[in-house]
Design goal:
By secondary structure, this protein is mainly alpha-helical. Helix content is about 60%, strand content about 0%. It has 1 helix and no strands.
């Protein structure tokens, strides 16, 4: 008798827990997603505020290559090859 009572209580409690999870889990996920979206939106706004608009018609160079080259221009580039006859 005790085993049957335990099984009935266990099945009922699992059914109730499953029903509650189906109701409350989507609400929990939606609130977490909304918070993440709001944080991303705020970070994007902060990033956009930090960016200064570039004036039109101006050229800005961020990278300047080294003037020295490892191979002099007089030598050019050579590729080793074997002649096949």
């Amino acid at each position: 008798m005790g085993l049957i009572r335990f099984l009935i209580i266990a099945i009922c409690s699992l059914y109730i827990i499953r029903s509650l999870v189906r109701i409350f889990l989507p609400m929990l996920f939606s609130s977490v997603i909304n918070k993440a979206q709001e944080q991303a939106r705020q970070q994007q706004q902060n990033y956009n505020q930090q960016q200064q608009p570039k004036p039109d018609g101006r050229i800005r160079v961020d990278y300047k290559p080294d003037a020295k080259s490892s191979v002099p221009d007089s030598e050019g580039e050579f590729v080793d090859y074997e002649e096949i006859k």
